[in-house]
Specification:
340 residues, alpha+beta, 60s Ribosomal Protein L30, Chain: A, Phosphoribosyl-aminoimidazole Synthetase, Chain A, domain 2, 2 domains, 8-stranded mixed sheet, 4-stranded mixed sheet, 9 helices, 16 strands, globular
């Protein structure tokens, strides 16, 4: 049975503070209470943050928020609680990565049905807080509420970036080369597997790209520090849709080479996903970025494979070309809420 609101908040507060009052979870986040950016955390009407100073350099503050909704982003019969918590935070961390920023603090608002197993909440929170500790941020507050139906989680992540150095979507220019990190389509292909065989539970170890994706924070910071990326976005909605966002904000077009798009390998036995998943599947949380033609990009950065998949053009449309050079216009068909 779910704990009452105050007890639930206290439990999460102790987990985030690493006091050990929630079993093994406390030991995972000892560094959380040592975060100098959080002057006042959970317990007051507002958190008080002091963004970390840099030598001779002022910073800008990054703020991002993302919903995780039962029935839209996950299903309890498909996704373990630990996966839901992990993916909930990855959504915000990936946005910080796409700006070249460093995460500082997170806020979680969680709505749950009255009759709900407390064990699920514990696993959810442990996974989420463990990921936060891995990337050096702490939980500074949030809210809880009773939901009439299903789980609703809203994550807010606050980060920092040197003043004026955030990598935006609007910086792409004609002639820039287009790159993507990692591999694409693994998450969407996993969802298709679960949809086709809804009663079959997949082993998360064989489908890590969906159940436990990793945000590309170090990669984003390196691209920003070395002034390599002219524009950047994370592939949360799918390559076709996220590239369209860059093109729209930058006032440009693009050409993609189908054969170069890196497709994920998932499952056991392992299989390579179809091109349609790499083009339109979301929730890969890789980084899609443009680079001026004069700059060189290595094949790996921070241990992550980097692949050139096309270039930016003066027109406003996006074209996909095959090995023979024959192309057609690529419409954005990734994830979009409220679309028919």
């Amino acid at each position: 049975m779910l704990l009452a609101e105050k007890a639930l908040i206290d439990q999460i507060r102790h987990m985030a503070a690493g006091t050990g009052k929630s079993g093994s979870a406390g030991a995972m986040v000892r560094s959380a209470r040592l975060n100098p950016a959080i002057l006042v955390g959970i317990g007051d009407d507002c958190a008080v943050l002091r963004m970390p100073p840099r030598p001779n350099q002022k910073t800008d503050t990054l703020v991002t928020t993302d919903f995780t909704l039962e029935g839209i982003h996950f299903r309890r019969d498909w996704h373990p609680a630990g996966s839901v918590g992990h993916r909930c935070l990855v959504r915000g961390l990936s946005d910080i990565a796409a700006m070249g920023g460093e995460p500082v603090a997170a806020f979680l608002s969680l709505a749950l049905p009255r009759k709900f197993p407390q064990s699920w909440v514990g696993l959810f929170a442990r996974s989420l807080i463990s990921l936060a500790e891995k990337y050096g941020l702490s939980f500074a507050g949030g809210d809880t509420a009773e939901s009439p139906d299903g789980i609703l989680a809203d994550i807010v992540v606050v980060g920092s970036v040197p003043r004026g150095k955030a990598v935006l979507r609007s910086g792409a220019r004609a002639g820039d080369r287009l790159y993507v990190s990692g591999e694409l389509g693994g998450s969407a292909a996993t969802v298709r597997q679960m949809t086709q065989k809804p009663k079959r539970k997949l082993n998360p170890r064989h489908y890590q790209r969906h159940f436990f994706p990793e945000p590309r924070l170090e990669l984003g910071q390196i691209l920003r520090e070395r002034n390599l990326a002219s524009a950047m976005i994370d592939t949360s909605d799918g390559l076709s849709t996220d590239l369209a966002h860059i093109c729209e904000e930058s006032g440009v077009g693009a050409e993609l080479e189908a054969e170069r798009i890196p497709r994920a390998v998932v499952g056991k036995p392992a299989w390579e996903v179809a091109l349609k998943f790499a083009l339109h599947g979301g929730e890969d949380y890789e980084l899609l970025f443009t680079v001026p033609g004069s700059k060189r990009i290595p094949s790996h950065i921070a241990g992550v494979p980097i692949t050139q998949i096309g270039h930016i053009t003066r027109g406003r449309k996006i074209f996909l070309r095959n090995r023979a050079g024959v192309g057609h216009e690529l419409e954005p068909r990734g994830w979009e809420h409220f679309r028919s």
